[in-house]
Every structure is written in C-alpha cells, then in structure tokens.
Amino acid sequence: MAHKKQHLPSKTCPICGLPFSWRKKWERHWDEVRYCSEKCRKNKKQFT
C-alpha cells in the first residue's frame, strides 16, 4: 500500500529561505529541526 505524502508538515530554512518537508529520520525531533541541510546548518554563523 502506497502512502500519500500530501499532508506532511513543512518548515522554511532560516538560512536559504527554501521550504523543506518532514522526513522519517526527523520523526522523533521534528520540533528541534531548524535547517534544511548540513550545509545550511554549518553556514548559520555567516548569517547571524
């Protein structure tokens, strides 16, 4: 049975400004996820 992925929560990355969606690997700590990728997380100091 296929799952429909239409209603996944999403957030906007504060570094690049692009939206990103919920991922299975973030299931337990979705509230703590702030950046869309490792690249944005590592570059956060440039934009603060």
Short description:
The protein is of the alpha+beta class.
Question: How would you sum up this structure, described in words?
Answer:
- Pfam families: DUF2256 (PF10013).
- Strands 1-2 form a two-stranded antiparallel ribbon.
- It is 10% helix and 12% strand.
- It contains 1 helix and 2 strands.
- The protein has one domain (10-43).
- With 48 residues, it is α+β, with helices and mostly antiparallel strands.
- The model has no long low-confidence stretch (mean pLDDT 87).
What descriptive keywords fit this protein?
48 residues; alpha+beta; two-stranded antiparallel sheet; UCP037205; DUF2256 domain-containing protein
Secondary-structure blueprint of this entry?
Elements: E1 10-12, E2 19-21, H1 38-42
Antiparallel strand pairs: 1-2
The total count of strands amounts to: 2
Kindly provide the radius of gyration, computed on alpha-carbon positions and rounded to a whole number of angstroms.
12 Å
Percentage of residues in strands: 5-15%
**Major β-sheet annotation:** 2 strands, antiparallel
**Poorly predicted runs:** none
| Overall shape | elongated
Strand order of the largest sheet: 1-2
Count of structural domains: 1
